[in-house]
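Posting for a labmate who doesn't have an account.
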Amino acid sequence: MLPIPTQNAPTTTLSGLVASNIRAYMAAQRKTTAELALIIDRDVRAAQRRRSGEQQFSLDELEAVSRWLNVPPNALMARLAAVA
């Protein structure tokens, strides 16, 4: 089951929200950080930093990730409900 947008999610920075949403979609689809690294053309450590929110995703990376996760880019910036 994929995450569902909600208005009740806690407020955070946009980059933190994006990282959190990417983690949620990746978990729901059982995708790995190694796969993410290939998609954004970075090494695994750089992908881990982006996935954790330690470093921001670029707009080009967000576009690639949204295609990979099969979600619109704005879904990565929406507040999401917990994944069941």
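Reply:
Got it, the structure tokens are right above this. The two ends are 7 Å apart (CA to CA).
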